[in-house]
Structures are given as C-alpha cells and as structure tokens.
From TrEMBL:
It holds the Pfam family SUFBD_core. It comes from Nonomuraea guangzhouensis. NCBIfam families: sufD (TIGR01981). It comes from the Bacteria. Belongs to the iron-sulfur cluster assembly SufBD family. InterPro entries: Fe-S_cluster_assembly_SufBD (IPR055346), SUF_FeS_clus_asmbl_SufBD_core (IPR000825), SUF_FeS_clus_asmbl_SufD (IPR011542). The lineage of its organism: Bacteria, Bacillati, Actinomycetota, Actinomycetes, Streptosporangiales. This is Fe-S cluster assembly protein SufD. Residues 120-347 form the SUF system FeS cluster assembly SufBD core domain.
Length: 374
C-alpha cells in the first residue's frame, strides 16, 4: 500500500506501509534534526543485519487473550500506518506480532503485563504489538522494557466505543540500548485512553506516541516522565490528530536532566482539522536542567483549521531549579541537598502519582531517588 491520501498533518506529510516511500534520513529533515543518527546503529538505514535478540512475553488475566500471529492477520496495521522510515522498517521486518484482546464489556481483575527483554546490542531486531479493547471494556496494560537491545517496534492500541484503556510504558533499558518506537492509540466513539510513559534507561530512546479518533467524544490523556543522565539522548515526539468533533486531549510531559551531554527532546504536535469542531486540547512540557552541559529542546506545535473549538493551547518551559523554593526550605532548617531533592521529587512526583499501578509507581519513585543520589 502506498502513501495515504490524507497526510497526518502539515508536519507529518507521509504515511505508508511501503518502506520505499521513505528516504533514508540524513539528519537535515525536520523530523530527524534532533536525533543523532550515528547512534541508531542502522535502524534508520536498514543496512544492519537482523540478528538481535528480544524476548517479548505477555501475561494476561482470565478472560483476556494473548496470541502470536503473522502479518497477514487483519488486525495488524489496521489502526496505524507507519509515518517514518524506522517505523516502516519495523512494520516490514517483524516476524510475528503479539495481539492482546480484551472482550466486549469485560473488566479484567488485574493489569495485563507485556515484558520486552533484550538479549544484547550486537544486532538489530524489530517487533509489533496490538492491543484491542472491545466496546465498553476497561483494561490496564503495563509494557516494560529491560536489558540490552537495538530495537524498533510499532504498538497499536485500538479502543472501541465507550471503552477505557490505561497504559504504562516503562523504558528501563541498560545503558547501551537503542530503542525507536511508535505507540498509536485509535479511539472510537466516547472512548478513553490514558497513556503514561516513563523513560529512564538506554543510550538513545526515541518514542513517538500518537492519537487519532474515529468517532466523536474521544478523550486522550498523554503523560510522561523522563530523567536524562550524562550522554543519554531521550526523545519524545507526540502527535494528536483531531479529526472528529467534540473530542478532548491533554498532554503533560516533565523531565529532569543532569550530566555532560544529557539531551532531552520533546516535540508536541496537535492538529485540529476542519471537521473537528468542539475540540478541547492542551499540551505542556517542562524540563528541569540540573547541571551544566545538559540540554533540553522543547517544541510545541498547534495547527487549528477550524474556528469552532472549545479550547486549545500549549506551553513549554525549560530552566534551572527555582532558587526561591530552595531558599524557602533552607529557611526552615532543611539542608541544601535535601531541599534540592525535595523540589525535584515534587516536580516529577505530581505526574508520577498518576500511574495507576502501585508497583510501577513505587519503582519509578525509587529510580528517581537513585538518580538524585548520584
């Protein structure tokens, strides 16, 4: 299948299952100008041999099905069309896809767990996951990434009429891992999607969460927390495509950076099409730069093609710790190091508290504590 007739937006002009529709990026393209291509280890060029090792396992509670299928399965690629070279490469190179289905009107007693574990960074590998939540069902999904790998994948979330899906995606890779991933949520009429991304590990991680609507009344909430250490490149590129009336979206990502050449990139694209009257949307990104030598690039974009919106806005801020907050705590007898730690924990903790799964929430809080103790 060639290029789609309807581009995602003026900032995302291509969507195709065909790898040949995408040129190998050079770094001069808008979509790739922040990404250090030399550190992708061939994921973007297709020249690397597919010899990597990644084990993906699903743990599904009673009533939920998890199955491995071939690419001929009709559920593969139904919600998401690749929007760049690496995404198309992953779509054309995976061997089997994991499909998880939550039946109509069901509410599983436990969260669905998907574990992705890398077995080494000496070769690239690709994957594909589809999560289908049928009408009026509710589910919580945790996707956890660990180990070492050079890995690209696409993840499709298909949320049916009146259904609710909550997803926590944890990137806790080893220091040498490279991960490029697209997470796409397709929301039907009156569907709700809450996605929470936590990115801590890896040498280079580039995640692209996106949302589209197929009926009115959809509600998407995208949140994320990241902590960038010396030499790390953590990149999040979001797209919310409002093409249906009376839908909502809210985006809130926060990051902290410390160490030489720590680099965070956040791109937030929201488009409100002519037919999407009554849209209510807001996106926010905030970064705390804790040391010299760290860099945060934050670019919010909002395209409004109709005058009939309920609300639309965006904001972005990157800066140092607020001296007034530190002084306030020190004036009450709290030492500087402890005051600094409390301010950073408070900044990130406001979002971390939104994580639905207590075990993951505690792990993330402990990981932030460990980062601050360095």
């Amino acid at each position: 299948m060639g290029l789609t007739e309807k581009p995602l937006s003026t900032l995302h002009e291509k969507a195709s299952y065909d790898l040949d529709d995408f040129e190998v990026p050079t770094g001069r393209e808008e979509a790739w100008r922040f990404t250090p291509l030399s550190r992708l280890k061939g994921l973007h060029s297709g020249k690397a041999e597919i010899t990597g090792r990644v084990l993906t396992q699903a743990y599904a509670p009673a009533g939920v099905t998890a199955e491995w299928v071939g690419r001929e399965d009709a559920r593969i690629g139904k919600a998401y069309v690749p929007a760049d070279r690496v995404s198309a490469q992953a779509y054309n190179a995976f061997e089997k896809a994991l499909v998880v289905t939550v039946p109509k009107e069901s509410v599983p007693a436990e969260e669905i767990r998907i574990e992705v574990r890398g077995g080494g960074s000496d070769g690239v590998t690709y994957g594909h996951i589809v999560v289908v939540v049928e009408p009026l069902a509710e589910a919580v999904v945790v996707i956890e990434h660990q180990g070492s790998a050079v890995y690209a994948d696409n993840v499709e979330f298909v949320v049916g009429d009146g259904a609710t899906l909550k997803v926590v995606s944890l990137q806790d890779w080893d220091d040498d891992a490279v991960h490029v991933s697209h997470h796409h949520a397709q929301l039907a009429k009156d569907a709700t999607f809450k996605g929470f991304v936590v990115t801590l590990g890896g040498d280079l991680v580039r995640l692209s969460p996106s949302v589209s609507y197929t009926g009115p009344g959809g509600d998407a909430d995208l949140s994320g927390v990241y902590f960038v250490d010396a030499g790390q490149h953590l990149e999040h590129r979001l797209l919310v495509d409002h093409s249906q009336p009376h839908c909502k979206s809210n985006v809130d990502y926060r990051g902290a950076l410390q160490g030489e050449d720590a680099h965070a990139v956040w791109i937030g694209d929201v488009i409100i099409r002519v037919e999407a009257e009554g849209t209510d949307t807001y996106e926010l990104n905030r970064n705390l730069i804790l040391t010299d030598g760290a860099r945060a690039d934050s670019v919010p974009n909002l395209e409004i093609l109709t005058g009939e919106v309920a609300g639309a806005g965006h904001a972005s801020a990157s800066g140092r710790l607020d001296d007034e907050h530190i002084f306030y705590l020190q004036a009450r007898g709290i030492p500087f190091d402890e005051a600094r730690r409390l301010v950073i924990k408070g900044f990130l903790g406001q979002l971390i508290e939104k994580i639905q799964v207590a075990e993951i929430r505690d792990r993330v809080l402990n990981a932030v504590e460990a980062e601050l103790a360095r």
